[in-house]
Amino acid sequence: MTMTYSGTTALITGASSGLGAEFASRFAARGANLVLVARRADRLEELARDLRAKHGVTITVLPLDLGRPGAGRVLKDELSGRGIAVDTLVNNAGFGTRGPFVEEDADLIASEIALNVSALVDITRAFLPGLLASGKGALVNVASTAAFQPIPGMAVYGATKAFVLSFTEAVAHETKDADLRVLALCPGATRTEFFEVLGSESAAVGVMQTSEQVVETALKALGGKATPASVVSGWANRVAAGFAQRLPRALTVAIAARAVQD
Asked: How many C-beta atoms surround the C-beta of residue 74 within 10 A?
């Protein structure tokens, strides 16, 4: 099985900045056509113009709030109506909230779960049959090193990313005999707009990576002879994730709580 870029189509959510924009740039440079999805139409159009000019690929821009119910069906119907088949799906859209759970805004928490979990599952289910039929591309779900232990002070965010990791690894096993590469990408702190939305960089544990470094980790995993079901970006993050899985659960929770506090 070989990962194919040239002449294929990659759907990337959360594509207006950060990891999503970097995935778009790297895929376009390899000759992939793109479907870019996010809420900010102006940012998507600017990115699309730049990548079309640089790489001559076809780019479809779809401004959409993926937190709405049925986002997967909406996306699938829209692209089917345009005659666009998707070979690779990168589920990157998501955000985090911070603070004691009892004090968090209930509506914001609901939106966080809707985008980080419900939309990712819905979009994956809508496009997975086509990805399997294509046999040329990949399914990449962006999780986090927050997936490896509970995060007091970011309880909902950590739980959503634990779900993404578990879900993706299960789907990878279910489809292991198919010509589809399935990967849960687990970055640590990354220089994106994530911490602006979060409202603080105090939760940025360890040395921050760049979007380029994180996406390079994903591309190397996809380009290998056998794609792992999950990969942690950065050696220090891999070590920390390994310890989190081996230490007593109560200790990992206590360490995580201290790491993200102001």
From this structure: 18
Using CA atoms, how far apart are residues 59 and 15, in angstroms rounded to an integer? 12
Question: Do 154 and 260 meet the contact criterion of CB atoms below 8 Å apart?
Answer: yes
Helices (H), 56-119: 71-81, 106-113
Cβ within 8 Å of residue 122, ≥6 positions away? 70, 71, 72, 73
Q: Is 157 an active-site residue?
A: yes
Options 5, 23, 157, 195, the catalytic residue: 157
Alpha carbon of 39 to those of 14, 36, 96: distances in Å?
Answer: 8, 10, 16
Q: How far apart are CA 109 and CA 156, in angstroms?
A: 7
Smallest Cα–Cα separation from 147: which of 256, 67, 37? 256
Q: What is the mean pLDDT of residues 193-204?
A: 55
Q: How far apart are CA 11 and CA 139, in angstroms?
A: 10
* pLDDT tens profile 70-116: 999 999 999 999 999 999 999 999 999 999 999 999 999 999 999 99
Q: What are phi and psi of 60, to 5 degrees?
A: -105, 130
Apex 57 CA angle, 52 and 60, nearest 5: 80
